[in-house]
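Ops channel
N.P.: pipeline sanity check, posting one input/output pair.
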């Protein structure tokens, strides 16, 4: 991700009700793995940099749109080992489990006994596992089954679940699954609203924010 600071950075986030919390530790630029075969990432009209993990993309695929209930999903994509999870016990109030990504949000397995938490898993296909909080409904992750158990295992974390301070740093660097997108959403994201959509500070539609 070319827009993050090149120094090591720690990002935090979780679900709305805070039953599920996570910490992402991004290493310095030199220790972020390059993405094999990827085009360089533009950082201005004239500059590009090598594309390295993490990737932050705006996802236009139908599955992610439907499961999130949003116009598009935005993902922070990184190795599973970068993230640690602190998750409230469902059965013992006040008890918090400190878990790895695979333990917390990985696919269900007969060989893995997961503690009882508010993490709920959903397999939209046999290719990956999605998770959300069963108490407040926040969509949290997608993890591909393809590289589970290997050093290349990655997880997608919803950018919208980041805490505000971390969200300020997590700027997307690309669109993904563009050919599955909806025309007016794509136009809104790439060309703007044309300057004529009303902007209200809150739910009061009698006033607008001056440009």
């Amino acid at each position: 991700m070319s827009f993050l600071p090149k120094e090591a950075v720690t990002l935090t986030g979780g679900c709305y009700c805070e039953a599920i919390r996570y910490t992402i530790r991004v290493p310095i630029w030199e220790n972020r793995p390059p993405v094999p075969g990827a085009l360089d990432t533009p950082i201005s009209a004239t500059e590009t940099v090598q594309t390295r993990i993490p990737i932050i993309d705006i996802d236009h695929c139908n599955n992610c749109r439907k499961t999130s209930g949003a116009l598009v999903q935005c993902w922070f994509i990184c190795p599973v080992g970068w993230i640690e999870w602190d998750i409230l016990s469902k059965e013992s109030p006040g008890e918090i489990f400190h878990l790895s990504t695979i333990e917390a949000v990985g696919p269900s397995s007969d060989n893995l006994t997961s503690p009882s938490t508010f993490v709920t898993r959903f397999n939209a296909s046999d290719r990956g596992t999605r998770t959300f909080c069963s108490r407040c409904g926040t969509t949290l992750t997608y993890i591909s089954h393809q590289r589970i158990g290997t050093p290349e295992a990655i997880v997608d974390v919803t950018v919208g679940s980041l805490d505000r301070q971390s969200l300020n740093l997590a700027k997307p660097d690309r669109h993904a699954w563009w050919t599955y997108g909806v025309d007016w959403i794509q136009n809104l994201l790439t060309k703007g609203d044309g300057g004529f959509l009303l902007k209200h500070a809150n739910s009061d539609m009698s006033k607008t924010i001056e440009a």
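N.P.: looks fine end to end. DSSP finds four helices and 13 strands in the chain.
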